[in-house]
Amino acid sequence: MFDSLQDGLKGAFKSLRGKGKLTESNMREGLKLVETSLLEADVSIDVTRSFMGSVTEKALGEKVLLALDPSEQLVKVVYDELTDLLGPVDDDLRLDQEVNIIMMCGLQGSGKTTTCGKLAKLLQRDAKITPLLCAADLQRPAAIDQLHVLGDSLGVPVYSNKEESDPVKVCQEAVAQAKANKNQVVILDTAGRLAIDEVLMEQLKTIDRKVQPHHVFLVVDGMTGQDAVKSAGAFHKALELNGVVMTKLDGDARGGALLSVKHVTGVPIRFLGTGEHLDDLEIFRPEGMASRILGMGDMVALAQQAQNLVDEEEQKRMQEALEKGQFTLDDFRNHMQKMAKPGLMQKMMGLLPGMPNMREINDMMSQGDTSKQIRQMVGIIDSMTPRERKNPKIIDPNRRQRIAAGAGVQAKQVSELIKQYDTMKPMLTGMAGMNAGDRMQQMQDLQSQMMDPSRGMPKTKKSTGKRLSPKEKKKQAKEREKRLRQMRREKRNKKS
Predict the structure, then answer these.
(1) In the 8-state DSSP scheme, what is residue 67?
(2) Cα dist. 364→34, 275, 350 in Å?
(3) Contact indicator for 66, 480 with CB cutoff of 8 Å
(4) pLDDT tens sequence across 306-355
(5) Of the chain's two ends, which shows fewer C-beta atoms within 10 Å, N or C?
(6) How close are the terminal C-alpha atoms of the chain, in Å?
(7) For the segment 288-306, what is each residue's pLDDT rounded down to a tens digit?
(8) Cα(161)–Cα(180) distance, rounded to whole angstroms?
(9) Which of 26, 27, 42, 32 has its CA nearest to residue 9?
(10) pTM over the 0.85 mark
(11) In this structure, are residues 253 and 220 in contact, taking their beta carbons and an 8 Å threshold?
(12) Nearest Cα to 384, choosing from 409, 361, 348, 357?
């Protein structure tokens, strides 16, 4: 997702970097490249015009043009406008009723039923709530069976009634069962169609009116581009949606729908489907997505991914050990084994600042067998004695040779693994004394620092271009002061 948009924006910013003097003319050239990138990413024309109007107004102001590094200031302007375009989003579901009803709707093929399962998993993991799933898609019998399979895999109850032909009654019966069984949340998997029609809309409006859900979410396929935006508009007109869940964003979707839907329909994006696994549902954060689009990663999402690797009991054990400064090679091995989950390494690399786009990451990963490398690292640790795993400082050259022979690798690979462990340990133990909120705040602060133009942006490795001599820097500073005086003079003349 966003690969082409990332490439286009990077090209636009690169065209402005390294220029000794940045004028309104070449700034407009860079902005034109930004506009082209948005249109090529299938962003709505109206959204692109509105977005570029705001960016252009700020980018051509004296604060940007006369900045020490105007291109970095422009990145900050684009980041702020992207955040405004995608937000604000209220990420609090407010599950404060005896039974909270969440109605999921969408067209066939959008991933609606799977998303019901993913949302149930998210509620289990983050809110410690076991919801009740309701199979209200009576048009497609396979959807009922699919929901039961998902429920069984999650340990979540599923209500269905194949004898009933009225979806409203099925939903009402599910709510009654949730009250009886003290399920705090009911997720209604309603019927879909291949296309929007009057019958579908009337059925959904009847459920909305008689069951009165507290939240109505529309599931749309991110790969359908502007059709997803049109669907959101039509459903919102009929149902007054609380939010959109955009799925299949792990594919080759260009991202135009995600950037357009809030501006066109007024409906915020609440969740993102980023993979096939049931834990591949993210709470949408505008600032995090803006940062990803600009290739700056998303440290908060990365921290969340890392946290999701271990269950609550293991997290507690690890927290206690880290607070004592204990992080052994056994712990390191466990982390490596969890990272071997298909697609997880690529996803986490994509959230790191300064990394190439996802297409390039996949190319990099395909050149080497990552799972084989992880198995090799696990083999090295397994070849150590318990004492060596607990205290790798005792591993001398003789021990290193023995470990290498046992794992079938070279001695230098043992040294490299120990270096990786030595790098990771102080980072983890340093955050050990913080609670979850403090750790998340630290990640957000780190992300904010990355978006601060005065600190410079993290960049992928590339040519540094021409370096200015002290004499050229002094001349450049004088030219900026001269232009600033001219602009101030022109403003005074206009006022008089």
Answers:
(1) S
(2) 27, 20, 12
(3) yes
(4) 666 656 666 667 667 666 767 788 888 877 776 666 555 555 555 555 55
(5) C
(6) 52
(7) 888 888 877 665 566 666 6
(8) 17
(9) 32
(10) no
(11) no
(12) 409
